[in-house]
Design brief:
Pfam families: BNR_2 (PF13088). This protein is mainly beta. The chain has 2 helices and 27 strands. It has one domain: Neuraminidase, CATH 2.120.10. It is 3% helix and 41% strand. Strand 10 and strand 11 form a beta hairpin.
Length: 381
């Protein structure tokens, strides 16, 4: 069995150089000056492949900012810092090349671990940020989808504020934001029966036909919802056959019509002993409010490994073909990136190039962003 690398060994390999692997693809650890790097987002535009993520000392702290690297001639470039709010933790970046030619950068910004006070910010490349007209406590994660009539569709999850109580994730719900004026204003369509369903990831199945997939706070399964009217209404989410550990997923539609999901297909039932109190254990005190009462029961700490790409031929109801990208212990009882206790491989970003190649990026032990290129032979097994 291969030994788990130390944070120092990981850092020494963060040179961005793309190296061939035994499966016929290639891998790299992206350069970053930060000790913590998390929540990759991949974008493929006219200028090639780019990866965004958030980095700093510890998730939730105000030194967390958005960073970006570009793949050029077999090497990922030095990380470029895109944001720097000294008072907020800036997380979950999304890059969107809009139909009107603008490149937009969107991300969340929250004070400390208070996700219910989060705002979503958007800026044109090189421009000043502005807060979107969305309810306080709104988070994003998935790529923006352009509907047939030109409207922009953005998956949301709502960290609902409970007066006098601390956010724990117990009242989070899902929604879709729709903009019909190129991002100037947004209206919100709630997903019924979605408590605990977060990281809404819409995928186009046909004209005005969408499915969306969710991470679950309850750490049971990936859930699925469907819309037949272009996102204006949604069915109540139902469980798929893919286990979920209350960690992020990425779902895309492949060129051949199948759906591909990058995920950690494990859940709390498989690991009943792995628990932590909350997402932000390490941030320290200073908040004497009681935890939010009622709602669902969020489960934190289930291992975040292996990293798997699962395939579906039935529109995402089932994903029976599952291929392991990387094995590992996946320990995530701590967010600390320095002491070596974290070994998660999580928060994947997945996309497919015009030649059929799969591009995958994910958090590697909270210390680095790992990129893996999977050729068409791998996809066909």
């Amino acid at each position: 069995m291969q030994a788990t690398p130390t944070p120092q060994e990981i850092a020494s390999g963060m040179d961005g150089l793309l190296r061939p692997d035994s499966a016929g693809g290639a891998q790299a650890l992206l350069p970053s000056p930060c000790v913590q790097n998390h929540a990759a987002f991949l974008s493929l535009g006219d200028d090639g492949l780019s990866c965004l993520w958030f980095g700093g000392s510890l998730e939730g702290k105000s030194d967390i900012s958005i960073w970006r690297s570009l793949l050029r001639d077999g090497t990922w470039s030095a990380a470029e810092r895109l944001t720097d709010d000294p008072d907020r933790s800036e997380q979950n970046p999304v890059q969107f090349d809009a139909p009107d030619g603008r490149r937009l950068i969107l991300h969340t910004a929250q004070p400390g671990g208070n996700q219910d006070q989060c705002v979503v910010r958007m800026r044109e490349e090189g421009g000043a940020p502005r807060d979107l007209s969305l309810p306080r406590g709104t988070f994003i994660r998935a790529p923006i989808v352009v509907r047939g009539d030109g409207a922009w569709l953005m998956g949301l999850f709502r960290c609902v504020s409970r007066p006098g109580e601390r956010w724990t994730g117990s009242h989070d719900t899902a929604a879709l934001a729709i903009s019909e004026d190129a991002g100037e204003t947004w209206r919100v369509v709630d997903v019924p029966g979605s408590m605990g369903c977060v990281h809404m990831t819409p995928v186009v199945l046909g004209p005005d036909h969408l499915a969306a997939f969710f991470r679950r706070r309850q750490s049971d399964h990936v859930y699925r919802t469907e819309s037949r009217d272009g996102g204006e209404s949604w069915s109540a989410p139902v469980a798929t056959d893919v286990p979920n550990n209350n960690s992020s997923i990425s779902v895309i539609r492949l060129a051949d019509g199948r759906l591909a999901m990058a995920c950690n297909p494990v859940n709390a039932e498989m690991y009943p002993e792995a628990r932590r109190e909350s997402l932000y254990d390490e941030l320290g005190g200073g908040d004497d409010r009681p935890n939010a009462a009622g709602g669902c029961n969020p489960i934190w700490g289930v291992p975040r490994a292996p990293m798997v790409v699962a395939l579906s031929s039935d529109g995402g109801f089932t994903f029976p073909d599952r291929r392991v990208v990387e094995e590992g212990p996946g320990a995530c009882l701590s967010n600390n990136s320095i002491d070596g206790e974290n070994s998660e491989m999580s928060y994947p970003a997945l996309l497919q190039g015009a030649d059929g190649t799969l591009h995958l990026a994910y958090t590697y032990h909270r210390r680095a962003i790992k990129y893996v290129r999977l050729g068409t032979d791998w996809l066909e097994g």
